[in-house]
User: Fold this.
Amino acid sequence: LSHWGEGLAVQKYHQHYAHAKCDTDYGKGGREFEYLSVKRGRSTRLPIPKVQYVDVKSKPTWVFKSWHGGLGNMEVWQREVQYPEHVPEHMDAKRPLTVLAPQTFHNTVHLAHMEKITITISPVMFGFGKTTQASVIKLYQRLLSARSPFPKDKVSMFYSIDLISPRIEVTWVDGSVYEPPIMEGCTAQDLTQMIMEQSWLAADRIAASGKPLQPLAIDDYKWFQRAIEKKKVKVASKK
Assistant:
């Protein structure tokens, strides 16, 4: 029997910290770590896991997905089998939330289902190099740049007299607030990516609650344009 540390720790963490609580690899030197721990014995068959948090008698509904609607449709990213227990009623949702999300590269922040962005920094806190405060100020400069499509009246910066770490508050159209985690080493591009990825999830929450969503003037997920380009290439190749 073999196992690679604890889960996917071998891929994400340092060996020492990944196995700090593992009795097999704990207390060894740097060159004595065993990534693959092999033990002799007979494999134990665990019982097949059952569905959690769902009543046995509850009847599911099947979501028939179609690729003809494009990847911009929320149904593509939802569960195929949806139980009533999957609906987060505490969030005033009428349907289950998506379990998958599209992924793309966001180089700008645009007004995607946002009300405003508030940035708070401490002007009396200094640092040298690529600090978290420098990254937040760089994001503020990006939002105010001439190339940025973000409306300038929707972003504001506040100065705090207290020595606080920088904070970014993104207010969505439904009133909820998202604060991206600002850790040492993150850049303005990382903050841009986090905010825009959360905007898609916020759109899913708002749509699940039954509130109407305004169409976006800028769509980073250009599924329909990509489909049209593929059709043009296909037609050109036939000629």
Summary: The longest helix spans residues 188-208. The chain has five helices and eight strands. The first strand starts at residue 2 and ends at 4. The radius of gyration is 24 Å.
